[in-house]
Task: inverse folding
């Protein structure tokens, strides 16, 4: 391990993430891992990293780093202005930081989650087999925090993702869903509205995204037994406004589950920002024979 | 004679997640069925299973492969064979004895519980320690065990306004359940005591005290014993 970067300015929220903490959900340990797996994976591919290297995930920018040592990096995810010593640099393409360089992640224009990944990944003592930040337990990355890396093989040429292949972050998205175990408990009207209304993102974090657009009602008030949830579970608390559970969500929940988002569409959800909208399309054959 | 347990209702939650549901109730019968089915799944799905989460009446399995990889008919047959072939399907649970101190220093809501239930301090302690509880579910917080069933005499509603911080290892009751807070966190249950044990130690040899399916019984310790155990850092 060697110190790579020091955090000079703290943005909205940043955390180290690898693919997640698998195998402990039965003990109530959140899965964690990247919110946008596509941008996470692209970074690993661009850097020719092994599959599960640790990245630094940031919400809406605002972070500034100073290099303590030389390293090769790539920025992926939400479209933002990134400055290297004040000069704009391109995302989705490797770049080098030498000691003393300052990297600033400025305003984000499309999407909301940005990944800064070094060649070889960031290094941190794993907890329960994962380097992902452990919600409520793990240490937060703040101003003055040092991010460690390792001596990685140098890249002899710049690598990147050719522009047409980079993800586009739309302000209106449509995602596939499966009916949830409590779908039928909602009124016919609420079921229809759920599938027709474009819900608006109204805030959130790594645990959950809040939506507005329609008040979803149960046919009759009913206490639901807590049961397993996952990244992509859409639950509806008493106020009737759906919440999408995200990567750091608790492992069980006691609110009615109206639907679950298809795993392959979660990266689109992760990149939603204020006033973006989301529509749900039902997948067929949700019940086993 | 062992009761035969019907194969649970099956539903796809997503491409990689399948949910098996028994009758919608909190009961010892369901508890046995869920624990048994959870073991059955671990055995039969093996390499395809990332992990599973059991609750009061469901087992949710997270799979490596997509839904096409699962043959429900085959699972149903295996379940039936297992039910017929095995004479004793009773799941043997681990039994844990957990020390608790009901001293007023820790039992922040004891007065409320006494008022609401009309029971004396001694009665509340006696009833709370009188039975062994099943770990039905772990969640809400890492390692938080939902223990049931609490004696109906101890039924109290949740706090009208949840506490912004409940200290780790506090023991609470709410509805027909009791539980222990593994971390300092907000919480809405009535706090009636505290255990000197750490429920959860990420750097320890044994990370969690509780597993799903364990049987837990409380025994009373004095405040002095509480601090003795605590100082040993168990």
Result:
């Amino acid at each position: 391990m060697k110190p790579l970067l020091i955090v000079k300015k703290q943005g909205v929220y940043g955390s180290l993430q690898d693919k997640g903490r698998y195998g402990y959900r039965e003990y109530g340990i959140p899965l964690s891992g990247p919110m946008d797996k596509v941008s996470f994976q692209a970074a690993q591919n661009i850097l020719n990293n092994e599959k599960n290297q640790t990245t630094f995930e940031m919400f809406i920018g605002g972070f500034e780093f100073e290099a303590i040592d030389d390293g090769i990096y790539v920025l992926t995810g939400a479209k933002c202005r990134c400055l290297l010593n004040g000069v704009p640099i391109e995302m989705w393409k490797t770049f080098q930081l030498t000691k003393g360089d300052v990297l600033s992640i400025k305003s984000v224009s499309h999407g909301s989650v940005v990944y800064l990944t070094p060649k070889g990944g960031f290094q941190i003592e794993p907890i329960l087999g994962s380097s992902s930040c452990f919600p409520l337990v793990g240490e937060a990355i703040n101003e003055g925090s040092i991010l460690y890396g390792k001596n990685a093989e140098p890249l002899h040429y710049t690598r990147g993702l050719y522009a047409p292949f980079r993800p586009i972050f739309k302000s209106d998205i449509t995602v596939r869903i499966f009916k949830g175990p409590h779908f039928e408990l909602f009124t016919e009207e609420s079921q229809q509205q759920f599938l027709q209304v474009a819900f608006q993102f109204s805030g959130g974090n790594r645990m959950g995204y809040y939506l507005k657009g329609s008040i979803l009602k149960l046919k009759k008030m009913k206490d639901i037994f807590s049961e397993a949830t996952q990244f992509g579970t859409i639950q509806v608390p008493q106020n009737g406004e759906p919440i999408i559970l995200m990567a750091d969500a608790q492992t069980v929940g006691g609110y009615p589950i109206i639907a679950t988002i298809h795993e392959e569409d979660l990266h689109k959800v992760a990149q939603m920002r204020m006033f973006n909208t989301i529509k749900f399309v039902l997948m067929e054959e949700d019940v086993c024979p | 004679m062992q009761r035969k347990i019907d194969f649970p209702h099956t539903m796809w939650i997503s491409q990689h997640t399948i949910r098996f549901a028994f009758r919608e109730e909190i009961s010892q019968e369901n508890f046995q069925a869920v624990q048994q089915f959870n073991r059955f799944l671990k055995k039969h799905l093996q390499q395809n299973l990332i992990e599973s989460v059991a609750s009061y009446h469901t087992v949710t399995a997270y799979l490596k492969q997509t839904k096409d990889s699962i043959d429900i008919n085959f699972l149903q047959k295996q379940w039936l064979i297992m039910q017929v072939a095995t004479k004793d399907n009773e799941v043997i649970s681990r039994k844990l004895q957990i020390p608790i101190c009901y001293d007023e220093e820790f039992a922040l809501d004891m007065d409320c519980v006494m008022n609401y239930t009309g029971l004396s301090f001694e009665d509340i302690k006696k009833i709370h320690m009188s039975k062994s509880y099943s770990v039905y579910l772990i969640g809400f917080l890492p390692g938080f065990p939902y223990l049931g069933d609490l004696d109906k005499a101890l039924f109290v509603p949740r706090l009208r306004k949840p506490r912004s911080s409940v200290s780790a290892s506090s023991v609470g009751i709410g509805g027909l359940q009791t539980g222990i807070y593994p971390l300092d966190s907000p919480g809405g249950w009535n706090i009636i005591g505290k255990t000197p044990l750490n429920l959860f130690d990420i750097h320890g040899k044994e990370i969690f005290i509780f597993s799903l399916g364990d049987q837990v019984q409380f025994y009373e310790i004095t405040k002095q014993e509480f601090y003795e155990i605590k100082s040993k850092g168990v």
